[in-house]
Specification:
about 80 residues; mainly beta; two-stranded antiparallel ribbon
Length: about 80
């Protein structure tokens, strides 16, 4: 079976209510928070902070974005050996 490989580079203005962030540290904090909750956290410093979380799903950020653009998008099939 073939695989579809997608290479992309771009940006989007994400909707804070439609995206989620996931906790990546061992803090006693919510495992998932919305973008609106993430924006209220300090960038660094006393935990939890923004750098204790990562974007859960970049696809959802682009899907629900207010605006965005791709500067590079390339799709190709890769045959499995």
């Amino acid at each position: 079976m073939s695989k579809i490989i997608v290479h992309a580079s771009g940006w989007c203005e994400a909707n804070p209510e439609k995206i989620m962030f996931q906790l990546i540290s061992d803090l006693d904090a919510p495992k998932y928070i919305t973008g609106s909750e993430w924006l209220k956290l300090p960038e660094k410093g006393l935990p939890p902070a923004r750098d204790d979380y990562i974007l859960e799903n970049v696809g959802m950020a682009f899907h629900s974005a207010f605006d965005g653009d791709y500067s590079h998008l390339y799709v190709h099939a890769q045959e499995e050996v």
